[in-house]
Sequence to fold (446 residues):
Amino acid sequence: MPANRKFEVKALSRVEGEGALYVKLEGGQVDWVELNIYEPPRFFEAFLRGRKVREVPDITARICGICPVAYQMSSCHALEKALGIDPGPEIRRLRRLLYCGEWIESHALHIYLLHAPDFLGYESGISLAADHRDAVEKGLRLKKIGNELLTVLGGRAIHPINVAVGGFHRAPSRSALKALLPDLEWALQASIETLQWVSAFDFPDHQVDYEMVCLRHPHEFPMNEGRIVSDRGLDVPVDEYEGHFQERHVPQSTALHSVRMPGMTSYLVGPLPRVNLCFDQLSPTAKRQAEACGVEWPCRNNFKSIIARAIELIDACEEAIAIIKEYNTEPSSSLASYIPRAGQGCHATEAPRGLLYHRYRIGDDGLIAEAKIVPPTSQNLGQIEDDLRAYLPGIVNLDDAEATRRCEHLIRNYDPCISCATHFLRLTIDRNPEPAVCTINPMQRG
Fold:
């Protein structure tokens, strides 16, 4: 292979959004790695300013079609802190149930249609279905069951409209939730089979000394609440988040990169940190299956994040079943009343892809004066680049097509949520020893 090479991936796909990869090798060594995010900024933080409090959950839901609940839950909790609202334990349980639905549909989509094709040698979920129809149909049914749960609780599966600051506009009926139990019982067994299936994949030996970060709750697997912890000793309340993490512009991206202070280092959020740091809080079936799947926990190989997602799929199904079985009467009140007032609140929840932080300031007029949203993918972008730098030396002697496939595979371990895209990634390798440097002006993420 030539000593000087340039890998330029102009359109990342089987991920959500618009991004590219640029890699420069000199003398056979990795000289430069950039994960370019060139999707136009969406300015959500800017156009939330001046909005009424009640509008925020519906607006933030539009940030993502796969994980709208995460944005709604983080915004609701943060605004409730600012307004001094306590919706009560019944609403808290229903919110966890809603989050279970999102984890089920998102994890099923990623495992079966976005990630499994990499391990099995297919370029898409469609080509995978030609030879593994039963597996793809199982994944689609799992996703549909998660969507049905979102519909019953949220009013619809995409961008739910029943979520509100203070609770829900309308409590779900007992009969509508109970009707989901047979499908969820099937989903629990299908999730166990999913874990057994993905655990048998052939994984590269790629051990990395990540700093893993997630929420941790003393009594439950983290979704809506918890302290921010890491495997390097961090253990702080959510309101101290900005004292330990910082977003910054990088020249190659319209998305901000988050770093860990004070060293300004990268860190990892998502399913692997959650399973590693909260293993003891998994549901009984999920914990039992995790212990039997052949992985030694804690695991430091992010290629095995697909296994962590399958474990969380089991956990979400089992918890959803338990919550619904205990839901014998609708709450006496599904929505706490409040009067908009000046205040500030922040909160973090665990989106399917990792920690999601929101902070809001409400002005004296009762309108949103300031909003800050830090999605999981912006927290992982720096770690993806670091991961590529560590991984590339082991694959530079492969031919161009195989090296491309391995880079794509590593990026998809993170299930990056840039936005929504479906085309397969393409790679151009320019063997010019003096390749032009790609520069993109940074723009503020909204």
Observations:
- Residues 89-120 form the longest helix (32 residues).
- The chain has 13 helices and 14 strands.
- The chain has one domain: 44-377.
